[in-house]
Amino acid sequence: MGILVDIAFKLKSPVYHRAFFVHLLLGLHLISTSKLSAQIKDPSDCSGILISDSVIPEPYIREADLMWSGRHWERIDLREKMNQYLYYPLRALPCRKSLYDALIGSIRNLDSPIEVFADDHFEIPLSHRQALSYIQMIDTIRDPDTGEILLMDTISISSKDVKFWELRTDWYFDKSRGELRHRILGISPVVENPKTLDRYNLFWIWYPSARESLASSPAYIRQNQLQHLNYDQVLNMRFFDSVIFKEDNDYDRKIEEYKRSSTLDQLLEADRIKNKLRNFEAELWEY
């Protein structure tokens, strides 16, 4: 209170009045410049403002707390607008990559811990060199009489050739937390061969081994560019739209194998499985 009275007394004098406002403006300028300089980042910094490159650990589950578990295979269509952030950019940018480039870039590092398999049951392991041979293939045309090589063509699978992503996911109900949760076990790019236009699974990646690589790659969120999330976060938070094409069953069949009449029946069956999964948690509660 005494300081305020002293300032008010000094402001009555023109000399103190002028000096006070000079110091006040100088102080505000120093504060504003210090705040601005604190926001300046290094040009090579691609981490963004809120991005976290650390993997969020999965919660510990006691075997006694597992009431129910189910396994599903789902397909992410990259032609849908909601999923296009997984597809673009087609050419990797310094601070932004597609999901395919983020994974393939890690596989090119032969010391990467990513585990690659040829099937969705993870029974046929592939080395990184074998996986890279699926990405870049050499097609040869030989003379039918002599067997001499007439032409050699290199076929490279790039981000633009990825049409779908397939996930293998385990859903479980944890009674200690009273919630239905999921864990992604595998992820696979479905590519279109640039030459034959055939679509097939390139390979399957054991997802827990790829989480660190995905956590270091930021994903583009068009609704809010300040919400910088990485690919591991958006996949575990399910920021995508997908269709279930297989549920674990006795015959190990896909939906298209027992719903052959029309694609509409296949879509309705996929919605039935999704609704059953969605209603499972709510039906366990008693009011």
Automatic annotation (TrEMBL):
InterPro entries referenced in this protein's UniProt entry, alphabetically: Gliding_motility_assoc_GldN (IPR019847)
Name of one Pfam family that matches: GldN
The protein's name in its UniProt record: Gliding motility protein GldN
Source species taxonomy: Bacteria, Pseudomonadati, Bacteroidota, Flavobacteriia, Flavobacteriales
Name of encoding gene: gldN
